[in-house]
Amino acid sequence: MTSSSSTPAGVQVIVQAADGRVLLQLRDDKPEIPYPNTWCIPGGMREDGESPLDCAVRELEEEMGLRVPPSRLRLVEARTRSYGHETTYAVELDVDPATIDLTEGQAVALFTAVEIAGMSLGYEDDDVLAAFFARG
Fold first, then answer.
1. pTM for the whole thing?
2. Using one digit for the tens of pLDDT, what is the confidence trace for 9-30?
3. How much of the chain is in helix, strand and coil states, percent to nearest 5?
4. Which of 60, 86, 127, 132 has the fewest Cβ atoms within 10 angstroms?
């Protein structure tokens, strides 16, 4: 989705397990996509007329087969980044990456805050997760 200023609008969902680890998605290794072969927070672009919350629910189900009621998602932040406007949600969800029905990307895995701090993520997700973990 784009606004009247043609700014791309997307969402991302920080899926956090009860033990504090966060689910990341390894993007496809295709040179035509942004951040190929890079770990990122799951998410995607909004469709025309779609709310950020509806987009978050749709992306989790479409890309990973995760059905999460909108009431479980909590807003973390909404801000303009270098690539467009991003709305970030979080949900606590115990999920086994081996059981995820991945339809986009190469893999998913759970990572600790320490592991993530040593990674180079796509879409400014390093900063998003550093702030998320700092909030506790």
1. 0.92
2. 999 999 999 999 999 999 999 9
3. 25, 30, 45
4. 127
